[in-house]
Structures are given as C-alpha cells and as structure tokens.
Amino acid sequence: MYDFDFFCVLQKMEIRYKRTNVEIDLDLVQEVMATYKMKSIKEAVNFSLQKIIEHQKRKKLLAMQGKIEWEDNLDEMRGI
Q1: Do 48 and 54 contact (CB within 8 A), yes or no?
Q2: Taking the mean position of all CA atoms in its chain, how far away is CA 66?
Q3: Residue 13 Rama label (left phi>0; alpha psi -120 to 50; beta)
C-alpha cells in the first residue's frame, strides 16, 4: 500500500523537503486530518512521521527506566 520515497532531514536547524509521489492510504490520511483538524495532506503526513519518531524515542527512554543510578541530592540541586 505504501510506495515510500520520502525524506525530511533536520540539519543545522534547517528542515529540508523532497517533493515526491507517494501512494498512501487516503482513508488513514483523512482520519488524521479530521482528528487533528489539518487542512493538507502534507501537514498530516509530516505530523504522522513526527509522532512515529517521538513514539520510538519515548520507548527508548522508558526502556532505560531503572537502569540509571542517581547519586546526587535533587532537593539540594533545586535549592530546597
């Protein structure tokens, strides 16, 4: 269902885009657009890609839970 040749690179705080033809499921795109009140397919696709990346980053952070030891006094650092 996806013929995906698309990329967006964050480089030196500049977002670059590549124009492409993509075959995507319009029902999914329309659902994203309706749910988040978006006006364009481009906005919906970019939003969805960002959410996928954010989700993966959160999973990696959660996987680290309990694996890092804290040895300092947080109240002291906060000045409490």
Answers
A1: no
A2: 24
A3: left
Q: Could you report the per-residue pLDDT of 8-59, keeping only the tens digit for each?
A: 444 455 677 888 898 999 999 999 999 999 999 999 999 999 999 999 999 9
Helix (H, G, I), strand (E, B) or coil at 39: coil
Q: Judging by DSSP bridges, how do beta strands 8-11 and 14-17 pair with one another?
A: antiparallel
pTM of the entire structure? 0.64
Integer Cα distance of 7 and 49 in angstroms: 10
Contacts from 47-54 at CB under 8 Å and sequence distance 24+?
Answer: 49/8
Give the Å distances, CA to CA, from 13 to 3, 16, 19, 43: 28, 10, 20, 19
Number of neighbouring beta carbons within 10 Å of residue 44: 21
Decide if 22 contacts 3 (C-beta within 8 A): yes
